[in-house]
Specification:
heterodimer, A: 641 residues, Glutaredoxin, Rossmann fold, 5 domains, 19 strands, B: 253 residues, alpha+beta, 3 domains
């Protein structure tokens, strides 16, 4: 492939690819990390084999695309034209799809998505409720692109923004990004244009631009999905940013826990170099730029900007005090501009379609869309892209399909370990950077973990502190000791040893940690505790005062009890108990030996729902057990069932 | 001369003259190869434990009383001593093989360093590659990196102990990870972890004695729809039951 030496050569190449693709039918198989766990690779191969077998090889192109967000139903297969979407496809389904849909243009109804609300099968992807109300400006391209094909990206208009930017000149590009109102998608929400400008104006000739793909927030994976499925959009954004800032070297800091993202990015960078979109004299503009990959070795704190830059220098990724911002002194003391993956992926959109168009979407101070990963106790787990200002209720109920198993919603946690929990009363808050801060949480990188009535909020706070205690780098005392002490108190509370005054003490320590920590990890660490205290203080008090865990989670505060009125002597729990703590016999009421019970929850899980005899008891004395050998009670009506 | 040696071995220890004599005799009966510091520490401990009891007969020390054998500290020291001994033995008996392994480690490391252009900025990347090739960071390799890139070994250990990806002890042939990300946590990951630990008979962070399995926890693999998730090598398993787990582990060679 000869290098593209001008914008005109790029446009010609694009037309040539589009012409080639025009006559082809596309089969897009979602083959990101999520899909692969469910056998999408085999499905894609089966399509290739079957298409060759049926002699359709020159009419159909099979694309292995990145995640399209609907993780619950993957692997999904999308056939274009027609937009027919099949969900949960297995290798065995492939020949039927090829014969019927590709061969005869008919739809295989049994593989369509069924809307649980109406019971109707939905043929078109855009009619599926999960997709219907989303606005997938950034993530939407994933379904058109083979993860490893730069040609697919070009066909879609890729690198046109770069060509345009090179024509506009750096000042105009910077101006456009400033006008768009784009804010950092990594969590902080700092205006991107201003950040770029600061680095651009910093008094040093050598400057760096960096992609932060150290997506460490548990429960957030939109960056991985973008890097895997559409790496060129991130690279294009980065080149445009480097051009505006005046950097000639870029870095992508990506966690090594994302092997597919690293691999796809490596391929994409190589392709961009081959096409002359990276390297010296890009598209004949005289602008030189290249990118190196730096794999993160697994430390949450290394996602902090100064820590990340230290890690790129090959030293331990610990944060430093930021009296001097990294925009002035970052990697090797040079001005360095760091943005999150999603932020960079927004840049080509802004340049292509203009700041005015971009700023039409969103709220007053938060423009554009945001990708959230909607996970936890929700029916449609997946990646959701919505305009800023959408309410939590719309995301969780309209797109997410509500809570599974008819359970009651309790809270949603946003912003990862630095964020907070949001109760039902705040579900109608329109989400943007400022509104979330107001209700005691934050945008963070966009993790959204839904919890139902079976989740204990004290346990959730403890979970985050436990995570942060392990990830604190230990340089500063407030973070290292403060988190540890708060965790100790929460561990005590969960172990039925809570004392009056614990809540006040937690508040005091939290204040010190917030105010005195070196970096944002410590400064935001108390958020999960403070927000659960604010909205679910009753649960804390129940743990401390009544020694009761209302959700039945904290093992030291619960006991399992078999209701003699309901037990049918079926032996299921007795046989499954790993501790051998249940006694009884066929048709005799089963009894749990409390001294031997390890509270593993197995009996509770295996007891058939129609009996529902195992109960969790918390905060009240255990009812007297029946005498061993008592026969089960059966009412006539029940026996007939 | 002999007197001086005894003094240095039991410095600061208050023992009766009888006990000191017993210890000294014990020391003399040991083979030269077993005179490691660890064994002496073990003897010190023995002496301390028997200091306030009646002076023991030599036979009793040689075949330790049940309460002594039960002492965790003693057992730990004993196993440590045995390990050092076997290392020493191995080096003596198979010095050739050990040398070959060392040379291999260093050659492999050298290749990695060259791949990154001997650039010190790539230290973490170099360590990641060594970890990937060996499943741990052998000391020979780290020393070579230190030598080659002129980076103090202490700084390399700083990095090797800071990041989760690195291990300073050999890891099992099969990596078992349980995701403890938030989404998995609210869906019952702690219970899954308990089941996996019970099934493998090792705790998180440990490796089985036969070096077959290592069990680790991770913070989010980004496949939250499958949660809670267990990963064995590259294969993901969504909330396996105890029976399914047994099948999965049995299928690993």
């Amino acid at each position: 492939m000869p290098k593209l030496k001008s914008a005109a050569a790029l446009a010609a190449r694009r037309r040539e690819i589009q012409e080639r693709y025009k006559k082809l039918t596309t089969v897009a198989v979602t083959d990101g990390s999520d899909g692969r766990t469910r056998g999408s690779r085999g499905v894609a191969q089966a399509f290739r084999d079957e298409i060759t077998k049926q002699g359709l090889g020159d009419k159909v192109i099979v694309r292995q695309t990145g995640c399209q967000g609907f993780c619950e139903q993957e692997p999904t297969v999308l056939i274009m034209p027609g937009e027919t979407c099949y969900v949960g496809v297995a290798e065995a389904d492939v020949s039927e799809i090829v014969t019927q849909t590709l061969g005869r243009g008919e739809i295989v109804t049994r593989l369509l998505y069924t809307d649980p609300a109406t019971g109707q099968a939905v043929a078109k992807e855009s009619d599926i409720p999960f997709y219907k109300t989303q606005s997938r400006l950034v993530l939407g391209a994933n379904r058109w692109l083979d993860m490893l094909s730069i040609d697919d990206y070009l066909a879609l208009g890729g690198y046109a923004a770069l060509a345009k930017a090179l024509e506009m000149g750096p000042e105009a590009v910077l101006d456009e990004v400033k006008k768009s109102g784009l804010r950092g998608r990594g969590g902080g929400g700092f205006p991107t244009g201003i950040k770029w400008e600061t680095t651009r104006n910093a008094p040093e000739a050598t400057k760096y631009v960096i992609v932060n793909a150290d997506e460490g927030d548990p429960g957030a994976y939109m960056d991985r999905s973008l890097l895997e499925g559409n790496p060129h959009s991130v690279i294009e954004g980065l080149i445009i940013g480097a051009y505006a800032i005046g950097a000639r070297q870029g870095f992508v800091y990506v966690r090594q826990e994302y092997p597919l993202a690293v691999a796809n990015l490596e391929v994409a960078l190589e392709q961009a170099r081959e096409y002359g979109l990276l390297g010296p004299n890009i598209l004949g503009s005289g602008f030189d730029f290249d990118v190196a990959i730096h794999r993160g070795a697994g430390a949450f704190v290394s996602g902090e900007s100064s820590a990340l830059m230290t890690a790129i220098e090959g030293r331990v990724g610990e944060p430093r005090p930021k009296y001097i911002r990294t925009a002035f002194s970052g990697i090797g003391g040079k001005p360095s501009n760091l943005n999150n993956v999603e932020t960079w992926a927004n840049v080509p959109l802004i340049i292509n379609r203009g700041a005015a168009w971009y700023a039409e979407t969103g709220t007053k101070n938060s423009k554009g869309t945001k990708i959230f990963s909607l996970v936890g106790k929700v029916n449609n787990t997946g990646l959701v892209e919505v305009p800023m200002g959408t309410t939590l209720r719309q995301i969780i109920y309209d797109i997410g399909g509500g809570i599974p198993g008819g359970k009651k919603f309790k809270a949603v946690q946003t912003g990862g370990p630095s964020g907070g929990v949001i109760p039902e009363s705040k579900l109608d808050t329109p989400i943007d950077f400022d509104e979330l801060n107001k209700i005691g949480s934050m945008m963070g990188s966009g993790g959204m973990i839904v919890m139902d009535e079976d989740n204990c909020m004290v346990d959730v706070a403890r979970y985050f502190l436990d995570f942060l205690a392990g990830e604190s780098c230990g340089q500063c005392v407030p973070c290292r000791e403060g988190i540890h002490q708060m965790l100790k108190i929460l561990n005590r509370i969960c172990a039925s040893e809570g004392k009056p005054g614990d809540i006040e003490l937690l508040g005091e320590i939290a204040e010190v940690v917030q105010k005195a920590s070196l970096c944002a990890l410590g400064a935001t660490a108390p958020n999960p505790v403070l927000s659960t205290l604010k909205y679910f203080g009753d649960e804390y008090r129940a743990h401390i005062k009544d020694k009761r865990c209302p959700a039945g989670v904290c093992q030291d505060l619960i006991a399992y009890y078999i209701d003699p009125a309901k037990c049918q002597g079926c032996l299921i729990c007795l046989r499954n108990c790993p501790a051998g703590a249940i006694s009884g016999d066929k048709n005799l009421i089963h009894i749990i030996d409390q001294a031997r019970c390890t509270k593993c929850n197995t009996c509770f899980e295996v007891c058939p729902p129609r009996f529902n005899a195992v109960r969790k008891i918390s905060g009240e004395p255990l009812p007297e057990a029946v005498a061993p050998g008592t026969a089960v009670k059966r009412k006539r009506g029940e026996q007939d069932e | 001369m002999a007197k001086q040696k005894n003094k240095s071995a039991f410095v600061g220890l208050k023992v009766t003259s009888e006990q000191a004599e017993t210890l000294a005799r014990l020391q003399r009966t040991l083979k030269p190869g077993t005179k490691t510091e660890v064994l002496l520490k073990g003897l010190e401990l023995l002496a301390a434990r028997t200091a306030d009891a009646s002076p023991p007969q030599p036979r009793e020390i040689l075949s330790p009383a049940p309460e002594l054998a039960a002492s965790d500290e003693l057992e730990r020291l004993e196993s440590q001593a045995l390990r050092y001994l076997s290392d020493l033995q191995e080096t003596r008996n198979r010095s050739e093989e050990v040398m070959r392994r060392m040379v291999k480690n260093i050659a492999q490391t050298d290749k990695i360093i060259t791949h990154y252009g001997s650039d010190r900025n790539y230290l973490i990347q170099i360590l990641l590659d060594i970890q990937r090739d060996n499943r741990w960071l052998p000391r020979d390799a780290l020393m070579w990196v230190s030598e080659k890139l002129d980076i103090p070994l202490s700084r390399i250990y700083h990095i090797a102990t800071f990041y989760k990806a690195f291990s300073l002890v050999p890891q099992g042939r099969h990596q078992v990870s349980v995701c403890l990300g938030t989404a998995c946590h609210v869906r019952g990951a702690p219970r899954l972890l308990e089941k996996v630990a019970d099934s493998l008979q090792i705790r998180p962070g440990e490796t089985s004695r036969d070096l077959k399995f290592s069990l680790n926890t991770v913070n989010c693999l980004g496949c939250c729809a499958l949660g809670p998730v267990m990963v064995v090598d590259e294969a993901y398993h969504s909330n396996p039951t105890t029976a399914e787990m047994a099948d999965i582990f049995a299928a690993c060679d």
